[in-house]
Amino acid sequence: MSYYSQILTVIIINSILAVSLNLVSGYTGQLSLGHATFMGLGAYAATLFALKLQSPFLVSIILGAAVAAFFGFVIGVPTLRLKGDYLAIATLGFGEITKNILLNLKITGGPMGLRGIPKVTNVYVAAAALVLVIFSLNRIINSRVGKSFIAIREDELAAESMGINTTRFKILAFVIGAFYAGLAGGLYAFLFRYINPKDFGFMRSIEILCMVVLGGMGNTYGAVFGAAIITILPEFLRSVSPVVAQYRMVLYGLLLVVMMIVKPQGIISESSLSNKKREKSLEKGGL
Amino acid sequence: MLTLEDIVTYYGNICALKGISLDVEQGEIVTIIGGNGAGKTTTLKTICGLVPATSGEVCFLDNDITNNPTSDIVGAGIVMVPEGRRVFPRMSVLENLQLGAYLNKNRLEVKEDLEKVFDLFPILRDRKKQVAGTLSGGEQQMLAIGRALMARPKLLLLDEPSMGLAPKIVANIFNIISEINRAGTTILLVEQNARMALSIANKGFVIETGNIVLEDTAENLLRNEEVKKAYLGE
Q1: Cβ of residue A241 closer than 8 Å to a chain B Cβ
Q2: pLDDT for position A255
Q3: Is B107 close to A283, i.e. CB distance below 8 A?
Q4: Which residue in B89, B99, B114 is closest to A147 by CB distance?
Q5: CATH number at residue A257
Q6: Structure ipTM
């Protein structure tokens, strides 16, 4: 695979991560600092299914995503009942715990990670996955469920007063987000053929968050755009000078601060929530 | 229609309601008046399950609904207009109203209700595509009430609808509340503006630091010397 198609594949995988975090943070308004953890769980689970049980690629990555979704549910149920910023702290803790478990378990290869994964992911596989993810996310966002997510972000108390079961929908958003992140993790494992716990640490979570904030919270295409920029940036910097590339995290931080001051809504801001077609449906009594 | 029996509610260690008992009859406008921190909002939140009651019983239409999930309580017909309006700021007026009808899956009914709300608040019809956060305070209050009406409430809970509004607009809002009541919706109204609230209510409860201290018809409360001194500024 050429260098450029490799980069493009990574952009696509990062896009899946960004749009899935965008569902949780951008649309539902729940700040998660552990998105890479779900990616890691998906990557490890998919790899183990493929290596130990010889399950085919497609089955492996879907099972991996399901495992990530399951953990999303397990961590979401106790934390999403709470209101406020507890979720961010809980997801942060969950990420660290998971990393340490992966570092110490025998089946996950400890700090050595897992190697010998067949190379299956390429631009076309990744692109097909991204198209499916965006298509299904759009369906969700424009449905009653999606409106519930947005209502929760806009005003949780009001949403609850309208009869929306806010805890249930927050958990649902979190589980769907974890599923897609797990899917991206599986694709990642089958692209790089080697995974280790450090690939899915806190810094990766922050990187994904940067993509969403930079691209525009609450806009799926903004998230894709953010993913593209954050992926290309270090490659570009490396071509300028390897030393500069080492300081990319500093640059991310700077980028976030500048964005918050100059354009807090992101590069592609959330378009007005309603379009023509939607307005018609609203007037006919549909949600 | 609604009865509260010795309701006790805590926020952590702080006891906000110390045994509230009250009743609302079908077709009435009942008001709860009292100062800041007396427990007015907590009473409403406890009724609709947003805050759990530690002990006591909330009965609605002969069913015990104490600490039921809010979505069930809304489904049963109790809908609250929260304090400070709380419209969904970045959604359009139309979308806010549609979310009010969240539990109603009958599109024809929703469309009908939408027309009713627009008839009640013509300004909302003119602004239906406008983003709710850009409405004036009075318009937002109308939207919040309209949104609650979309849920087809049997009992409407109103938390300080006069908050932060000009007197002329307050009078307008209170006229509409009476109108909603005449159309058949029972109303439980929490207010700091005691004179306004008592002028449209049938019955009133006076609440002080988590206790009901007085209960009477609105007429009698307006003439009560203590109420006059403490809440009517005479």
Answers
A1: no
A2: 82
A3: no
A4: B99
A5: 1.10.3470
A6: 0.89
